[in-house]
């Protein structure tokens, strides 16, 4: 490529608007991944205190590992849907960062290059003493799988009572975004939900979900499935 072409591309990159996507379980639900809170969701057969707290892992690690091994297998079988793909394709036109509550890797598999998993990533394990991360590939976690420090591996998932990941980075991204798109979340889980209150006054803000009690101030609400509404909205924004 000649120098003028390189400069033109660089200017184009610098002029692209920043788009931050805050994504929740409703996006992955359309890839047939069960959510926690809906009727028949993952909590239907389990109490959070049995499978989603540090105390539960200490009391019955096998039950907790089996629960997340099942979920991990479901994630591996799932396929990115039209919403994931549209968000990834938006990188052609915007500087896109995805901040997701979801612990699956469907955004990455669809092609998104910048994804922050504030609640962890189920395809990774972490040391229960050092926090060191290990990619699991096609493997699961069983009792006796140890980190280099000799401690039992656990799922890299934020449990109730634990601090979420990357929150300050996510907050800064939303505050500086030109466009904020909240999708597939009821905004009922904090502190993630508070990110929807962070956009600057002149940002363009959109909310896409099937149902929500209160639409945050300043948001253009599009009711409907993410697989329909996200491609439509991103086409409008282009």
Helix and strand topology:
Layout: H1 3-15, E1 18-23, H2 25-29, H3 48-51, H4 54-59, H5 61-77, H6 82-89, E2 95-100, H7 106-110, E3 115-117, E4 120-127, E5 133-135, E6 153-157, H8 167-175, E7 179-183, E8 204-209, E9 219-223, H9 226-237
Parallel strand pairs: 1-2, 1-7, 2-3, 7-8, 8-9
Antiparallel strand pairs: 4-5, 4-6
Helix pairs in contact: 6-9
Descriptive report:
By secondary structure, the chain is of the alpha/beta class. It has 2 domains: 1-33 and 80-119 and 163-238, 3-Layer(aba) Sandwich (Rossmann fold), CATH 3.40.50; 35-77 and 125-157, SIR2/SIRT2 'Small Domain', CATH 3.30.1600. Helix content is 33%, strand content 20%. It contains 9 helices and 9 strands. The strands form 2 sheets. Strands 3-2-1-7-8-9 form a 6-stranded parallel beta sheet, with helices on both faces. Strand 2, helix 7 (106-110) and strand 3 (115-117) form a beta-alpha-beta unit. Helix 6 (82-89) packs parallel to helix 9. The longest helix is centred in the N-terminal third of the chain and has 17 residues, at 61-77. The radius of gyration is 19 Å and the shape is elongated. The two termini are 26 Å apart.
């Amino acid at each position: 490529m000649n120098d003028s072409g390189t400069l033109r591309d660089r200017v184009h990159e610098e002029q692209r608007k920043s788009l931050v996507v805050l994504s929740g379980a409703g996006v992955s639900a359309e890839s047939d991944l069960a959510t926690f809170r809906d009727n028949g969701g993952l909590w239907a057969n389990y109490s959070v205190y049995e499978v989603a707290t540090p105390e539960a892992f200490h009391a019955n690690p096998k039950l907790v590992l089996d629960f997340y091994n099942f979920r991990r297998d479901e994630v591996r079988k799932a396929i990115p849907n039209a919403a994931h793909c549209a968000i990834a394709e938006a990188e052609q036109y915007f500087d896109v960062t995805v901040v997701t509550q979801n612990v699956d890797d469907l955004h990455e598999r669809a092609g998104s290059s910048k994804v922050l998993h504030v609640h962890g990533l189920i395809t990774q394990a972490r040391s229960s003493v050092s926090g060191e991360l290990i990619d699991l590939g096609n493997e699961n976690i069983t009792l006796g799988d140890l980190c280099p420090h000799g401690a039992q591996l656990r799922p890299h998932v934020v449990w109730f009572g634990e601090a979420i990941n990357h929150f300050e980075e996510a907050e800064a991204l939303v505050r500086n975004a030109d466009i904020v798109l909240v999708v597939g979340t009821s905004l009922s889980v904090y502190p993630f939900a508070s990110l929807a209150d962070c956009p600057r006054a002149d940002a363009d803000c959109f909310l896409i979900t099937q149902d929500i009690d209160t639409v945050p101030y300043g948001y253009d609400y599009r009711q409907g499935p993410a697989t329909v509404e996200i491609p439509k909205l991103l086409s409008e924004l282009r």
